[in-house]
Amino acid sequence: MGRVRDKAGAVIVGGGAVGLGIAYRLAEKGMRDVVVLEKGYLGSGATGRCAGGIRQQWGTEENIVLARESVRLWERLSEELGFNVWFRQGGYLLLAFTEEELASFGGNVKLQNSLGVPSRVVDAEEVRRIAPAVEAEVLGGAYCPTDGIAHHDPVVWGYAGAARRLGVEIEPFTEVRAIEVAGGRVNGVKTTRGEIESPVVVNAAGAEARDLARMAGMELPNTPYRREILVTEPLKPFLEPLVISFHHNTYFAQTMRGELVAGTGDAEPPSYRTDSGLEFLERTAKALVTLAPRLSGVKVLRQWAGLYDVTPDGKPILGVTDGLEGFIQANGFCGHGFMLSPIVAKLMAELIVDGRTSIPVEALNLRRFKGEVKGEGMAVG
Amino acid sequence: MMREDPRIRDDPVLRFERGREIRFYYRGRAIVAYEGETVAAALYASGIRAFSRSIKYHRPRGLLCMGGWCPNCMVRVDGVPNVRGCTTLAREGMWVEPQNAYPGPDLDLLSVLDRLAPLFPVGFQYRRFISPGPMRPLYQRLVRRIAGYGALPAAGAETAGTIERTTEVVVVGGGVAGLAAAKHAAMTGTKVVLVDEGRRPGGRLTYHADRIPGFGEGIAAQEVAKLSEDVRGLGVEVVAQATAVGLYPGNLLGVVRKEGLLKLRAKRVILATGAYDLYPPFEGNDLPGVLLATGALRLMNGEGIRPGRKAVVLGSGDLALSLAFQLDRAGVEVQGLLEEGPKVPGSEAMTERLAEKGISIFTSACLKAAYGQGRVEGVAFVRDGGEERLGADLLCLALGLKPAHEIPFQAGCRAEYVPGVGYVPTHDAWMRSSLEGVYVAGGLVGAFNPPLAASQGLIAGVSAALDLGYRDPRLGEEMERRMTSSPGGVATEGTWAMREGGFLCICEDVRYAEVRRAIREGYGDIESLKRYTGVGTGICQGKLCLRSLVELLAREGGKDPSSVRLTTQRPPVRPVDLGKLAGGKGAR
């Protein structure tokens, strides 16, 4: 592995769906000297570890609009990239076990509908019809048929391949050691394979976005949290939607290969840990078997973990950094970076090349943390 | 169907005490079995050779490991999918069905996919089924329908209770090294729990009905049985038919049994998980009739089923030579052993023993392929520039072993690469790994030679006890003697250069050639390669294929295998039922 190139139009730090997506969109808009730097192998961060869920059923306008636009892009992504990302719109089914949950879903559905998302409240009978495997006593739920799941790995390879064809240089196993800052702007990066001069540095480093920002002498309010996940042996198809139970802090879905992916959250202190715990298996198994008793004979094949990059208000941090020209934030996705990656890629490329975005994202700028914040309530495991 | 009775009735060495005759059902047909036999063994005895169809090409697959860790013998039992036939005891009235094969594993209509294989090169699923857009939901439905092994269970299994225990020393693995460790730790007064997968401890050697030089006077199976008695006599608690699936922070061992989950916390953990047989790619390597050496020994000596009529053994180290001898004694016609190198690495005595029986060892014999229609019918090899063939219905792979290193690596032990062995957890002279309170010994660290494994086990056991503050002065001289004498080096099983044919990963149906193509396409690091090709992501999670993947990457990159890292190892080491993990708290 030789040196990296010494000058670039934009350096993107982070080789996951967000970073590679931005690189691709930049090149698509004509920028030819784009470089992506990834510390490990492509997708070794959250992208390669996530369940691949894509939903529009959020509780705040910003998240809903971004998710809606993202789904529109997801629907065309395979054709655009010439690489099949297996986006299957089997829907998301959120289960309600209490009146409060049902009421909250009702409110959210109204907001979602007003923004053009075709979600609806469903009763217990419809829950059973949509997901016969779910046998727990539910009060009802919320369902959106255009939500779905995509396979994470081909998203990485698809973006990388398409970006490379447009001249982007993608450098895995290359770590950023320092960010050159002078005169109120970023001027480039120092990597383990040489230095790159660049007027634009994009922070798409996921859970390490905060560490990267510190290299530029600034603080992000992001906190890393471990999130564990498991996968089972493959079965014949039996589950259409991705099912979420906030009550059990659990989600589960069946992939194209027939495996079940599932996770439960836990109140853990922040960390960069990606090791696995036995408590997680027990907790998740209990929740799954309670929700869908027929799953008790299904075997867990593997467990692993990834990191959520969490902001105080549950919404991402997008856009320019006041006082540090050229340093673009594209992080703080709180566990839904993968699903938003297509729209974020498009918007950040617009911002960098055109100076403005087709969907206003000023409300998601880092500067919002100087004042009061309204939180997103709909995050899970 | 085999016309002669495949059950070994009058074995001169092992007495098979069969339980009463029972009947269970396979595809609606009654199968005769005996209490104590596994479903797989009983089916094999009834003539079944194709137990399942592979996930992608629907190729017939037969018994291979007989140890519950490969995908080949999975069946649906009483409505539960993905049950390992080789570790499940047959019971009266059991209802057994094959999976993912229509109408059945002997004739599967979807095997047409195998003929169409050139249309499905590795990565095809990322280049096809994209357009036209409106067809995508249909493609997805079709692909989902073909994917997966079994269907969802008909009903929920009973949720078993979880038990939590603590102890001073837990030994994982009841083979030679584990038994030695348990014995010598217990001799100091330490409380020891031994966790072992088998019905009774002994590990691989439980099925070895031959004497191993330097390892006692009797056959290995008897020697480990004696060692096992010693261990019980010293008050070691033996938890049998229990699989340690993961070592978690705080020395918490997750153990899965039929009764449910056992959470065992120990002050000291000794890992003696042993080794797996090597399974290299070569043309025809996935045919029913290809068995790992240990698999053949388990079938023959563990269940009393003759594994074939005519056999060829690949390899000529001591394991191969002994296997050939045992097969012959059980009434199998051994057509020959194939050794790629110019010399037989096995001992002279064992070589002569075979010569007396008229069993040939072909040296400088380069295996070309195992061939046959849906099962092994013969083996082709090249020698002195010409091709030769041996008719056989059984090909045993005795090319050597590789450490079963899942647990130490998923727990975070540092690794080192040992040429001829592979990656092992690093350890000092006291068998301490890089993890606090965790020791390693035996086949796990490349000590495939039983006397060496026993020595290492002894050291690990004493080491753990000493670190806990226990002392036994008697052991002083024994330890010194063991540590200063050399009971023999690592056994080598001969030369084998990796072939460029056959399947590198049978769980996901990935051919050697496809993996090589993927590397050349640019997926040059092991993690990306694994994900892109699917190698190592299937049922066995790399137990069969990881070694070959590392070697292939090294070869393509022109570098040494020691520079190719392993993929991240993760729990569980064997797949575990959600129902067992969900168990409520038990007493104790």
Number of helices of chain A: 8
Helix content range of chain A: 25-40%
How are strands sequenced across the largest beta sheet of chain A? 5-6-4-14-15-16-13-17
- Structural class, judged by helices and strands of chain B? alpha/beta
The whole-angstrom Rg of chain B is: 23 Å
Average pLDDT taken over every residue of chain A: 96
| Secondary structure: helix percent of chain B | 25-40%
| Radius of gyration from the alpha-carbon trace of chain A, in angstroms | 20 Å
Q: How would you name the oligomeric state of the polypeptide chains in this document? A: heterodimer
- Estimate the mean pLDDT confidence of chain B: 92
For the sheet with most strands of chain A, the description reads: 8 strands, mixed
Give a count of the beta strands of chain B, DSSP E runs of length 2 or more: 31
Strand content of chain B: 15-25%
Short characterization:
The complex is a heterodimer of chains A (381) and B (588). Chain A is of the alpha/beta class and 381 residues long. Helix content of chain A is 29%, strand content 25%.
Describe this structure in words.
- The complex is a heterodimer of chains A (381) and B (588).
- With 381 residues, chain A is α/β, with parallel strands linked by helices.
- Chain A contains 8 helices and 19 strands.
- Chain A has helices spanning 17-28, 61-81, 99-114, 124-130, 152-165, 209-215, 278-291, 337-354; strands at 10-13, 34-37, 53-54, 92-96, 120-123, 140-144, 148-149, 169-171, 176-182, 185-191, 194-197, 201-203, 223-232, 242-245, 250-254, 260-264, 299-310, 317-320, 327-331.
- In chain A, the strands form 4 sheets. Chain A has an 8-stranded mixed β-sheet, sandwiched between helices. Chain A has a 6-stranded mixed β-sheet with strand order 8-2-1-12-19-18, with helices on both faces.
- In chain A, helix 1 (17-28) runs parallel beside helix 8 and helix 2 packs across helix 8.
- Chain A is globular.
- The two termini of chain A are 39 Å apart.
- The model of chain A has no long low-confidence stretch (mean pLDDT 96).
- Chain B has 588 residues and is an alpha/beta fold.
- Chain B is 26% helix and 23% strand.
- Chain B is built from 16 helices and 31 strands.
- In chain B, the strands form 9 sheets. In chain B, strands 10, 11, 12, 13, 14, 15 and 28 form a 7-stranded mixed β-sheet that branches. A 5-stranded mixed β-sheet of chain B has the order 2-1-7-5-6, with helices on one face.
- In chain B, strand 22 (378-383) and strand 23 form a beta hairpin.
- The longest helix of chain B is centred in the C-terminal third of the chain and has 18 residues, at 450-467.
- Chains A and B meet through helix 2, helix 5, helix 7 and strand 17 of A and strand 6, helix 3, helix 4, helix 14 and strand 31 of B.
- Strand 17 (299-310) of chain A pairs antiparallel with strand 31 (576-577) of chain B.
